[in-house]
């Protein structure tokens, strides 16, 4: 019998009595939806860390600004993206100042009022953002002026991204140590840890 249950010769009850037991159920590997949900949950947990959240926002801004700067090399079509980003910046600044005035009138803490994420270049002045568009008009739409704003913003975002990367490495190293300690403890008690 070599320690395995023979489906044709014995029932599950007989197999259990002989110490062989019923066939083990095959655990189905998680599908793509379950893996995506787990990754999304993990990302939400990571983004609770202020340094990681700020770095992620800086990275997203950098990617979007780069795409707009590349699109801005196409005369006509790129101007729409560049002017759209400037219009969003103006709208975000208007809303920011309006909210600060409202909070100040109510006697609240105006330092808690944050600039909208719609502004893709929050550290670049509105004068620089709109002023560079003059060069686009002068160059007959051939100068990709959004690149000037993007580089100016990147100077502020690079330190944020570096800080986030250092924090991520710190968290990953800490979790690796904890995981190895858990695995060592599991070996002592002969327990299998599933991830």
Strand content: under 5%
Low-confidence region ranges:
none
Oligomer: single chain
Report the count of strand segments: 0
The largest pleated sheet is described as: none
Sum up the overall morphology in one term: elongated
N- and C-termini, Cα separation: 34 Å
How many helical stretches?
Answer: 7
H/E element order: HHHHHHH
What would you call the structural class? mainly alpha
Radius of gyration equals 29 Å
Share of residues in helices: 55-70%
Mean of the pLDDT scores? 82
Describe this structure in a few short sentences:
It is built from 7 helices and no strands. With 195 residues, it is mainly alpha-helical.
Supply the key terms.
about 200 residues, mainly alpha, 7 helices, single chain
């Amino acid at each position: 019998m070599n320690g395995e249950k023979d489906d044709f010769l014995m029932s599950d009850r007989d197999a259990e009595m002989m110490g062989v037991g019923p066939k083990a159920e095959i655990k189905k590997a998680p599908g793509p939806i379950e893996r995506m949900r787990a990754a999304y949950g993990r990302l939400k947990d990571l983004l609770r860390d202020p340094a990681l959240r700020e770095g992620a926002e800086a990275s997203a801004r950098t990617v979007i600004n780069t795409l707009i700067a590349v699109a801005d090399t196409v005369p006509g079509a790129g101007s729409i993206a560049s002017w759209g980003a400037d219009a969003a910046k103006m709208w975000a600044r208007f809303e920011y100042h309006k909210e600060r005035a409202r909070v100040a009138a109510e006697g609240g803490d105006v330092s808690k009022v944050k600039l909208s994420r719609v502004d893709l270049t929050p550290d670049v002045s509105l004068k620089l953002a709109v002023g560079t568009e003059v060069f686009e008009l002068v160059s007959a739409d051939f100068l990709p002026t959004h690149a000037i704003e993007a580089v100016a913003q990147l100077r502020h975002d690079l330190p944020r991204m570096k800080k986030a990367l250092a924090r991520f490495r710190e968290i990953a190293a800490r979790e690796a140590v904890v995981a190895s300690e858990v695995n060592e403890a599991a070996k002592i008690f002969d327990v299998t840890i599933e991830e």
